[in-house]
Amino acid sequence: MNKPFDQMEVMLRVKNLLRVRAAYLVKQDIAKELEKKVKERTSELDKATDTLIKIMARVSEMRDNDTGKHVIRVGKYARILSEALGLPAHICYLIEKAAPLHDIGKIGIPDHILLKQGKLTDMEWERMRNHAQMGVDLLASHESLMVQLAASIALSHHEHWDGNGYPKQLRAVSIPIEGRITAISDVFDALTSQRPYKEAWPMQKAIEYIESKAGTHFDPQLVKLFIENIDKIIAIREQYKDLTENSIQQPIASLPIAMSN
């Protein structure tokens, strides 16, 4: 405004500015309310997705293990390893939620193969190995990052660091990190868990087995982190112990085919 000020002009300018300010504040309030509703809606969708994933994981687990806590433990172990590796917090969270779906493809494996207590024939073993691809077929079409991670884990958690795994014979860092993390988590829990076809391995023997497979079955860096965080792993193992399970400090049994299925 130019001097000398005109009283009428000043009043009009002030009124206009106050109207603009009021409109701005209203717009801000609307934006905040919309943001709040979007966050609430996103949270609801995340909870729904999380619930569905838990249900799917439990369904797949009940096919060959009615004790139910294996998939929970695998997810918890996977988060410990993810955090120890220094992955971003939201990725650690997603891996914990996705890892329990690692064996979702077993839904498609016939009971006479999945529940067989003896050694699988070559034909049965090939059929069993198909569960990795079946898992991808079930999950890959969903756009959710969590479900995409679950699909990746389902496909890659049986790959070996030295390239002798399945189904793609990937090796070393070509195996997705989420698959490498879940591989250790899954095998350790299978070893230390009692099943109809095997007794639980003693804890120390299971740890030694994981260490012995560094550089062949497992990522050596992850094995190192696993050992460094073994107290946290054991705490999870005890917190989510199967109700029907005997002590894990039992005489060692021979490693069954079903452990690595």
UniProtKB/TrEMBL annotation:
One Pfam family named in its UniProt record: HD_5
Top-level taxon in the UniProt lineage: Bacteria
CDD domains noted in UniProt: HDc (cd00077)
Cross-referenced SMART domains: HDc
A GO molecular function held by the record: phosphoric diester hydrolase activity
Domain HD-GYP: 45-242
UniProt-listed InterPro entries: Cyclic_di-GMP/3'3'-cGAMP_PDE, HD/PDEase_dom, HD_GYP_dom
PANTHER family registered for this protein in UniProt: CYCLIC DI-GMP PHOSPHODIESTERASE TM_0186, CYCLIC DI-GMP PHOSPHODIESTERASE TM_0186-RELATED
Protein name: Putative two-component system response regulator
